[in-house]
Every structure is written in C-alpha cells, then in structure tokens.
Amino acid sequence: MSDEITQILNEWQDGDASAVDRLFPFVYDELRRRAQIYLRNERGDHILQPTALVHEAYMRLIDVENIDWTDRLHFFAVASNVMRRILVDHARALKSKKRGGKNRKVPISDLQLSSFERSLELINLDEALKNLAKIDERKSRVVEMSYFGGMNQKEIAEFLEVAVKTVQRDLKFAKLWLFRELSATRGS
After folding, report:
1. Greatest pairwise CA separation for the chain in angstroms
2. Does the pLDDT value for residue 111 go beyond 50?
3. What is each CA distance from 36 to 1, 13, 48, 50, in whole angstroms?
4. What is the DSSP string of 102-132?
5. What phi and psi values does residue 46 have, to the nearest 5 degrees?
6. Of the ranges 21-30, 107-116, 139-148, 160-169, which one carries the lowest mean pLDDT score?
7. Domain ranges of the chain
C-alpha cells in the first residue's frame, strides 16, 4: 500500500486531478488512526471528533500547491503539521470567543474542546514548540509528528533520515524542555 500511495502522490504532483480522489481511500484510515492516537492522549473531558479533524486536514492538504511529495511518510508528516494548525486555530478561536472577541467561523463544526483551559494549554504548547524550533527544529518536528500526527518512532526516523535512537533522544530532550517551558508559562 505504501508504494500505491507514493505512486498516487506522484501522479497528483504530475497534474493528474483524479489522483486526489484516488488518494483519500488509501490515507483515510491512517489519518483517522493518527487523529484517534492524538485524542487518546488528551484528557477524558476533551471532546473531539477524529472524523471532522481528518476531513478538514485532508481538505487543507489537497489545497496545498507546490509540494514535492516524496512518499507516504512525507504526506503523513505534512498531515501532522496540518492537524496541529487546525487544533491550534480552533483553540485560538475558542479563546477569542471566551474573552469576548468576535465570533469567528471555525471550519470544523463538530470540533469541540470542552474547556477554555484546554484551549490555552494547546496554544501554550504551540508557542513552546515554536520556541523549541528556534533552538532545534528537528526536535520540534519530532514532537509534532509524534504528538499531533501519531507517527511512531520508526516512521519519524525514516522520514527524518536519522536513527531511531536519535528520535528517542530528541523526544526525551523535547519532553523535558517542553515541561520546563510549559511550567514557566503556568507560573506566570
């Protein structure tokens, strides 16, 4: 199936408009599984519909132009980033609404975060990941692919062309660094 996805991505890249429709059945289950993995790591009162997240992510992915898709891992790495953006955008919209800002249209109608506090946590995590990327972009991407994209360590290592041990070290460092950053944010 990996080869089929790569072939379809290449056809899409070469201008075959029908490739987008053929790609969805191949990637849907995997995107949904990754969304569920992300949600499984959330608090129990966090209500998020994986299907809505996957559909919104896919719609954003097919709107992206000028990506030189290399293979299925590249597709899922980009999907990790897109899912992160969707979740953060929604959290920011919820924060704005809660603080009296204008109601902004959120593209995923069934995406619901149960608490204002959870939205702030997600926004703080996004900011911390941006700060980590300034220090070490690979470590930030490893967290993004693992946490938001549900990629396992072997997939991340293969995509980044590093050893699995490197991914493990990056995750360990990033978790400690993010804990420190997020603890400082809560304290202020």
Report:
1. 52
2. no
3. 21, 28, 9, 6
4. PP---S-TT---S-HHHHHHHHHHHHHHHHH
5. -85, 115
6. 107-116
7. 2-187
List the alpha helices (DSSP H) in the chain: 2-13, 18-40, 50-63, 72-98, 116-135, 137-143, 153-160, 164-187
- pLDDT tens digits, one per residue of 116-152: 556 677 788 889 999 999 999 999 999 988 888 888 9
Q: Distances in Å between the alpha carbon of 52 and those of 31, 105, 128, 134, 169?
A: 11, 15, 26, 31, 33
Q: Is the pTM of this model over 0.85?
A: no
DSSP-derived secondary structure letter, 145: I
For residue 82, the SS3 value is helix
If 0-12 CB within 10 Å is exposed, 13-18 middle and 19+ buried, where does residue 86 land? Answer: buried
User: What does the alpha-carbon distance between residue 40 and residue 52 come to, in Å, rounded to a whole number?
Assistant: 16
Q: What are the tokens at 2? A: 């990996």
What is the distance of C-alpha 66 from the center of its chain? 20
Task: Report the alpha-carbon distance of residue 72 to residue 87 in Å, rounded.
Answer: 22
